[in-house]
Design goal:
This protein is mainly alpha-helical. The protein has one domain (31-145, 156-244). Helix content is 69%, strand content 4%. It has helices at residues 5-15, 17-25, 32-51, 56-65, 73-92, 101-120, 124-142, 162-190, 198-218, 222-244, 270-279, and strands at 144-148, 154-158. A two-stranded antiparallel sheet has the order 1-2. Helix 1 crosses helix 2 (17-25), helix 6 (101-120) packs antiparallel against helix 7 and helix 9 (198-218) packs antiparallel against helix 10 (222-244). The radius of gyration is 26 Å and the shape is globular.
Length: 280
């Protein structure tokens, strides 16, 4: 089967010439390796597309409530830090955008959410300093310069060495995991997920599951796989909390034993007791 050029070009770019010939032209659906690879590529592109909107509901929810109650600032700080490092690392590695595109979108959305959280807390100066620091850090880690020598060879230099950046990339695994802990604790203490977006939580869980599959299929790296497996576990805990506290806004206010929330006695007045006896 032959696809029109306008469809063939992106298909070949996504799954490669050999798998395109096998699956599209020859309709060989017994080619299991190519089927797995095509599924992995499809999931990867889906994750990138989902990453472009995954935090939008969270942004809308905060703006509508004019509050970020129940959303952990420290969680977003740690997650944004990990995203900035990963984004710079992938850019420096010249990796395909399909393998890290969601990181770019999530970074931008996280910075918007952090700005809103601090703004609604009356900390506009802190918001400016923190967001500027993240932008400066990303520029510092990702920037490279190229020089052409007399013999025509090109030398690439950077303020942060590739080795140091690789170390920081490895450090994003525990950073990403610990970024979930404050939010999990806050949900537990509040007995509620507050302004946390269900769409964002469940999509993060689904995305991390999908990344486990794409890593197993396309990347032979136990460190990256371990990071996604652990991330899936923590995202699963958040998803379970979201389901558990679905109809809970907060813990009910505690009152003294034997009293109602308005301060009146649960036992009632003697007048009420007499009426009950008459009814009996």
């Amino acid at each position: 089967m032959q696809l029109p050029y306008i469809l063939k070009t992106p298909a070949v770019a996504i799954i490669g010439e050999s798998c395109y010939s096998s699956l599209i032209e020859n309709l060989d659906y017994r080619d299991v390796p190519c089927i797995k690879y095509a599924i992995s590529k499809g999931l990867g592109l889906g994750i990138v597309a989902g990453g472009a909107i995954v935090k939008v509901p969270q942004i809308i929810k905060i703006v509508q409530a004019r509050s970020a109650k129940g959303v952990s600032v420290s969680s977003y700080m740690l997650e944004t830090l990990a995203c900035v490092i990963s984004l710079a690392y992938n850019v420096r590695q010249n990796n395909p955008i399909s393998t890290y595109g969601e990181t770019f979108f999530v970074t931008i959305q996280n910075m918007i959410i952090l700005g809103l959280m601090l703004h609604y807390s009356g900390k506009n100066t802190s918001a400016f300093v923190i967001l500027s620091s993240f932008l400066f850090m990303g520029n510092l880690l990702g920037r490279t310069s190229q020089f052409t020598q007399a013999d025509g060879s090109i030398i690439t230099t950077a303020l942060v060495s590739q080795g140091a950046l690789a170390f920081l990339q490895a450090a994003t695994i525990p950073i990403n995991l610990f970024s979930k802990v404050p939010q999990i604790i806050e949900n537990y203490q509040n007995g509620s997920t507050g302004q946390l977006s269900a769409f964002t939580v469940f999509n993060y869980f689904a995305g991390s599951l999908a990344r486990v599959y794409t890593t197993l299929t396309e990347v032979d790296d136990i460190i990256i796989l371990s990071g996604f497996l652990l991330s899936t576990l923590f995202n699963c805990i958040l998803a379970l909390q979201m389901a558990l506290y679905w109809n809970s806004s907060s813990h009910p206010s505690k009152t003294k034993l034997g009293e109602k929330s308005d301060g009146s006695s649960l036992g009632g007045s003697s007048e009420t007791k007499k009426r009950v006896k008459k009814l009996d």
